[in-house]
Design brief:
The complex is a heterodimer of chains A (128) and B (751).
Chain A (H helix, E strand, L loop, with lengths): L1 H28 L5 H18 L3 H14 L4 H14 L2 H15 L3 H20 L1
Chain B lengths: L1 H21 L7 E4 L3 E3 L7 H10 L3 E2 L9 E4 L3 E5 L3 E2 L4 E2 L3 E6 L4 E6 L9 E3 L3 E5 L5 E3 L9 H11 L11 H14 L9 H10 L6 H17 L2 H11 L1 E5 L2 E4 H10 L8 H10 L12 H17 L5 H9 L15 H11 L5 H4 L5 E4 L3 H24 L10 E7 L6 E5 L24 H7 L9 E3 L5 E3 L2 E3 L11 E3 H6 L3 H11 L1 H10 L21 H12 L3 E3 L4 E5 L5 E4 L4 E3 L3 H16 L16 E6 L5 E7 L4 E7 L10 H15 L15 E7 L14 E7 L11 H19 L2
Parallel strand pairs in B: 1-15, 3-4, 12-14
Antiparallel strand pairs in B: 1-11, 2-10, 4-5, 5-8, 6-7, 8-9, 13-14, 15-23, 16-17, 16-28, 18-21, 19-20, 22-25, 23-24, 26-27, 27-28, 29-30
The chains are: A mainly alpha (128), B alpha+beta (751).
C-alpha cells in the first residue's frame, strides 16, 4: 500500500512538472506580437490576397514591405517564393524558399508547405 | 493671286502643324519619388519630422476639421489629415480624412475621421524629390480635355476668347471690338487674339512682334482649325499655356497650375479657383496670388463677372464665389533633396535612359529613399562636424585648414533598401560622393571580417596572443601596437574584438592565414585588391564605404547579404511599369557565424570601444564596430539592429588627422541619427538561429563554469560544432542528483 502511494505521488509530481513545461512552450508560441510585427502580418496578408488574385507584382511589393517591418517573418519568404513561381522566375523562387526553410525550421506545418513548395519549384523548372 | 499665295502658304504650314501635333507635343520632366511611409498604431514616431513631411507633401494647416484633400489640423494630441490620393505602381487609393492620435511619441491610434473606423496600417504617398528638367525648365502635368471641368473651360473662355466655339481660328468681331476699345483708351487695352492664335504663337512662332508675325499667326490658326477639332485645340492650349514661375522653373498648363496654386488636380478645382487660374493667362506673374493677392482677386472677379454676363454661371454663383478669399497651397522651390543619393540613382538611370529622355518622357521613378531618415542624417552630420571643428579649433592640436568631411549611409540590412545617403558635408561645394566614390582605410572597422574568417577554428573564449611581434611586409619590418596598453599577454577573442586589440587580431590573422581573410572579404563583396600583408587585418587596405556597409549587412541579416537597392520602379506617363527592381539577397555565411559576430559586436557596444553609445540615449540592442586609422585619419562607426544599419565616416579629404577616434567623432553622429528616426527601429533583439549553443563561462578565467566557485558566470554563445563540452556537475550536486534517480528507481522496483 505504502509502495503504491509512493508510486502514485511520483507520477502526480511528474505530471505537474510536465504540465508546467507544456505551459511554458505554449506561452512561447503565443507570445504577444509587437505592433510592428502585427503591421508586418497585415502586409503579408495583403500580399497573400494579391497572390490569390494573380497579381504577383503587387504581391511582391506588399511582401517586401512586410519584410522591411519584420525581416524575421518566415511565412513572408514562403509567399515571396510563391509570387516568383507565379512570375515564372524559379531561381528567385528557390532563393526565397530556402530563406523560408531557414526561418520556419521549427514549425512542422509550415515546413511541410516549404518542402512541398520546393518540390513544386523543382517540378516546374524541369517542365519549363 | 493674293488668295492663291495665301492658300499655298497655308498648305505649306499645314505640313508643319501636322508634324508638330503628331509628334511628342511636350517635354515632360521625369519625376523621382521617395518611398511611401507606413504608419501603424504602436509605432514610435518623431512627430516633428512627421509634420514636416506632411508640409513637404503639400498639406496645408487649417484651423477647423480638414474638409478637403490636402487639409490638415495639428493639435497637441494628434494630427487630422484629409489624405491626398495615393497613386503608386502598386497601389491606388482615394484620399480620405484620417485622425492620427499620439501618446506622446508613439502612434496611439489611426482612424477614419468620417466613420471612426480604425485603420491598422496606413500608407502615406511618396514625396517628389527631384525633377529631371531639360533646357526649357518647364514643369507640366498633362490633362485630358475630358477631365477638365466645364466651369474651368468657361473661365478660360471668359478670360481669353468667349467666342472660341464660334469662330474659325480668327475672330473678326473680336479684332474689331479690341480695336474700338484700344482707340477709345488711346492705348492697347485689349488683344484680339483667339485661343487658337495664342496657341499658334506659343507653339510655332518666336515672340517677335510684327505684321508678318501676325499674318503667320492668323494663317496658322486657320490651318489648325481646319485640321483639328475645337476640343483638340483647346486641350493643347490648356496644357501649353504659361501660368507662372516656381523659382527658376516655369509652370505650364492648367494641370501643373492647379497643383502649384491650389494643391489639387484639375478635376477638383472650384469655380473661383478656375477663374483665378484663367485670370493668370494675361500676365501670370503680375496676377499671381503669391505675388499680389489683391490684383489676383480683382482679376478673378472680373472673370467671374464675364462668365455671369454670358450666362455661364448664375448671379448667386457670382455673388458667392466673388466673396471667396484666394487660398493658395503654398510651395517649396524645387530644391536639391538628397543630392548624393540622386547622383547615385542618376548613374543607374542613365544606363537605362538618355538624359534627354529623362528630361522629356515624363517618367515616374520610385525609390527606397526615406526623406525623414535623409534629413535626420544630414542634420546629424552637419551638427556634429561643426562641433568637432569647434573642438579642434579650441584645442592646441589643430592640424588642418581644410573643412572636416563626413559621410553617412543608412540601409535596411535584410532588404538592401537604401534609406539615406549623405556623401559629404555640402553638396554645393563638393559633389564627390564619399559613400560610393571614395576609398578609405577602414582601420579597426575591418576586424570583424578577420574574426568571421576564423570561426571554424576559434570560439569567443579562444585565447589569442597579445604580445608585441614584428612582421615583415615587403622586406620592411612592421611592429603593430595596441591603442591602449594594459599588459595582458593573452586576451580572449571576445575581449580582443570588444576592445579592438591590434596585437591579438594580427595574431589571429596569422593563425587563420591571410589568404583566407582575403577570400572571405572578396566573398563579402569588397572590390579592393587586397595583398596578404599582416596589416590587412588592421584595415590598412582602402575600401569603398558602400561596400563596407554592405559587408556588415551580412552580419546583421543572419548571413544573407543584400544587393543595395535605391531604385524600385520606373513608370511611363501612361502608368505602364517599364522597370522593376526587387530585393536580391544571397547567403554568404551561415546564420550561426553571423550571429557569433553579432554577439561579439554587441559586446563592443555594451562594454567595449563603443560603450559610450549607452550614454547617448541608445537603449535597445545594437551591434557595432568603431574604426580609427593610423594618425587618426579616419573615424568610423558602423552600427546595426535587426532592422537598420548605418555607416558613419568622418575625416579630411586630404588625409589630415582629425585627432579623434571613431568613438569620439563618428559614434555621436550615429547616435543622434538613430534617436531621430524611431519609426525605422523595432528595438527587437537579434534572433538566435539554429546551430548556436550556449555555455556558462566564468568571467574571471574565461573558461566554462564547472563549479559554484565562479563568482561571475556569464552566458556565452558558440557554434554547435565547436562548443566546449557541457561540464558534468561535480561534488554535492552530482551526489544529490544520483540519489534522487536511485530513489525513484527503488520505488518502482518495489524495494
Amino acid at each position: 500500500m505504502e509502495i503504491k502511494l509512493k508510486r502514485s505521488l511520483v507520477i502526480v509530481l511528474a505530471m505537474v512538472l510536465l504540465s508546467g513545461c507544456v505551459k511554458q512552450i505554449a506561452r512561447e508560441e503565443t507570445r504577444p506580437r509587437s505592433p510592428r510585427e502585427k503591421a508586418s502580418l497585415q502586409l503579408m496578408e495583403e500580399g497573400r490576397r494579391l497572390l490569390d488574385e494573380d497579381q504577383p507584382d503587387q504581391a511582391i511589393r506588399s511582401l517586401e514591405q512586410s519584410l522591411s517591418l519584420n525581416p524575421d517573418n518566415g511565412p513572408c519568404y514562403y509567399f515571396l517564393a510563391e509570387a516568383w513561381i507565379q512570375k515564372g522566375n524559379f531561381s528567385e523562387a528557390r532563393q526565397f524558399n530556402s530563406l523560408a526553410e531557414n526561418y520556419l525550421k521549427k514549425d512542422k506545418s509550415w515546413m511541410a508547405r516549404v518542402v512541398r513548395q520546393a518540390d513544386k519549384i523543382d517540378g516546374m523548372e524541369k517542365k519549363y | 493671286m493674293a488668295l492663291i499665295g495665301v492658300g499655298i502658304y497655308g498648305w505649306h504650314l499645314s505640313g508643319k502643324v501636322e508634324k508638330r501635333f503628331s509628334s511628342r507635343r511636350w517635354s515632360i520632366p521625369s519625376k523621382v519619388f521617395s518611398d511611401t511611409l507606413l504608419l501603424y498604431p504602436g509605432q514610435h514616431i518623431n512627430r516633428t519630422l512627421f509634420q514636416e513631411k506632411l508640409k513637404r507633401l503639400g498639406y496645408r494647416k487649417v484651423s477647423g476639421l480638414p474638409k478637403k484633400k490636402g487639409d490638415m489640423q495639428i493639435n497637441r494630441k494628434g494630427t487630422r489629415v484629409f489624405l491626398n490620393d495615393l497613386k503608386t505602381p502598386w497601389k491606388k487609393r482615394a484620399g480620405f480624412p484620417v485622425n492620427v492620435q499620439f501618446d506622446p511619441n508613439t502612434i496611439k491610434s489611426i482612424a477614419r475621421q468620417d466613420n471612426g473606423k480604425s485603420i491598422p496600417l496606413l500608407e502615406i504617398e511618396p514625396e517628389e524629390i527631384k525633377l529631371f528638367f531639360g533646357r526649357e525648365r518647364e514643369s507640366r502635368r498633362l490633362v485630358s480635355i475630358q477631365k477638365v471641368p466645364e466651369h474651368f473651360i468657361r473661365a478660360v473662355m471668359a478670360a481669353e476668347d468667349h467666342r472660341f466655339f464660334q469662330h474659325w481660328g480668327i475672330d473678326p468681331r473680336g479684332i474689331l471690338r479690341a480695336l474700338i476699345t484700344n482707340l477709345r483708351h488711346g492705348a492697347i487695352r485689349q488683344g484680339g487674339s483667339t485661343i487658337t492664335q495664342q496657341l499658334a504663337k506659343n507653339y510655332f512662332l518666336t515672340p517677335a512682334r510684327s505684321l508678318l508675325r501676325k499674318f503667320q499667326e492668323a494663317v496658322l490658326a486657320i490651318v489648325m482649325e481646319f485640321k483639328y477639332s475645337k476640343h483638340d485645340i483647346l486641350e493643347i492650349y490648356l496644357n501649353e499655356i504659361y501660368l507662372g514661375q516656381k523659382g527658376s522653373v516655369a509652370v505650364n498648363g492648367i494641370g501643373e497650375a492647379a497643383y502649384f496654386y491650389f494643391g489639387k488636380p484639375v478635376e477638383e478645382v472650384s469655380l473661383s479657383e478656375a477663374a483665378t487660374i484663367a485670370g493668370l493667362i494675361k500676365a501670370p506673374n503680375h496676377y499671381s496670388p503669391y505675388k499680389d493677392k489683391a490684383a489676383c482677386l480683382k482679376r478673378r472677379n472680373l472673370i467671374l463677372t464675364a462668365m455671369q454676363s454670358r450666362g455661364w454661371i448664375s448671379e448667386a454663383q457670382l455673388q458667392a464665389h466673388s466673396k471667396t478669399p484666394v487660398i493658395t497651397a503654398g510651395y517649396t522651390i524645387f530644391g536639391n533633396q538628397a543630392p548624393y543619393f540622386m547622383d547615385y540613382l542618376t548613374q543607374q538611370l542613365t544606363s537605362l535612359y538618355k538624359p534627354e529622355e529623362l528630361a522629356s518622357l515624363g517618367l515616374s521613378i520610385y525609390t527606397t529613399l526615406d526623406p525623414q531618415v535623409q534629413m535626420a542624417a544630414e542634420k546629424a552630420l552637419k551638427k556634429e562636424l561643426s562641433r568637432l571643428e569647434v573642438k579642434a579649433t579650441a584645442s592646441t592640436h589643430t592640424s588642418s585648414n581644410q573643412k572636416l568631411q563626413g559621410a553617412i549611409l543608412v540601409m535596411q540590412p535584410k532588404t538592401g533598401h537604401i534609406l539615406a545617403m549623405v556623401g559629404g558635408r555640402n553638396y554645393s561645394k563638393s559633389q564627390f560622393n564619399r559613400i560610393t566614390q571614395s576609398r578609405r582605410q577602414p582601420g579597426s572597422a575591418f576586424k570583424p571580417f578577420v574574426y568571421v574568417a576564423g570561426l571554424d577554428t576559434i570560439t569567443p573564449i579562444t585565447m589569442l596572443s597579445n604580445t608585441p611581434k614584428t612582421y615583415k611586409i615587403g622586406g620592411k619590418n612592421w611592429a603593430p601596437k595596441n591603442f591602449e596598453r594594459h599588459g595582458k599577454k593573452q586576451v580572449s577573442v571576445r575581449s580582443a574584438l570588444e576592445n579592438s586589440e591590434n596585437l591579438a587580431t594580427v595574431d589571429l590573422a596569422m593563425q587563420i592565414g591571410l589568404e583566407s581573410i582575403i577570400e572571405t572579404a572578396i566573398r563579402l563583396g569588397f572590390s579592393t585588391s587586397f595583398k596578404p600583408y599582416p596589416s590587412l587585418s588592421l584595415g590598412s587596405f582602402e575600401v569603398i564605404p558602400l561596400e563596407l556597409a554592405r559587408a556588415y549587412c551580412a552580419f546583421a541579416a543572419g548571413g544573407m547579404m543584400p544587393y543595395p537597392l535605391g531604385l524600385k520602379a520606373v513608370v511611363d506617363e501612361n502608368g505602364q511599369v517599364l522597370e522593376r527592381r526587387h530585393l536580391n539577397i544571397e547567403r554568404l555565411i551561415s546564420p550561426a557565424k553571423a550571429f557569433i559576430i553579432t554577439s561579439l559586436l554587441r559586446g563592443v557596444v555594451e562594454t567595449g570601444t563603443a560603450k559610450t553609445l549607452g550614454n547617448k540615449g541608445i537603449s535597445w540592442p545594437v551591434a557595432g564596430k568603431t574604426g580609427t586609422t593610423n594618425n587618426f585619419r579616419d573615424a568610423w562607426f558602423i552600427g546595426y539592429t535587426p532592422d537598420i544599419l548605418a555607416l558613419v565616416w568622418v575625416g579630411y579629404d586630404n588625409g589630415d588627422t582629425i585627432k579623434a577616434t571613431g568613438a569620439q567623432a563618428a559614434l555621436p553622429i550615429w547616435a543622434q541619427l538613430m534617436k531621430a528616426i524611431p519609426h525605422q527601429i523595432s528595438r527587437k533583439d537579434f534572433r538566435v538561429p539554429d546551430g548556436i549553443v550556449t555555455r556558462m563561462i566564468c568571467s574571471e578565467d574565461g573558461k566554462p563554469v564547472v563549479s559554484e566557485n565562479c563568482a561571475k558566470p556569464r552566458k556565452e554563445f558558440f557554434l554547435a560544432e565547436n562548443a566546449p563540452p557541457q561540464p558534468r556537475p561535480r561534488g554535492a550536486i552530482q551526489g544529490v542528483f544520483e540519489k534522487l534517480i536511485k530513489g525513484i528507481k527503488d520505488i518502482f522496483n518495489g524495494d
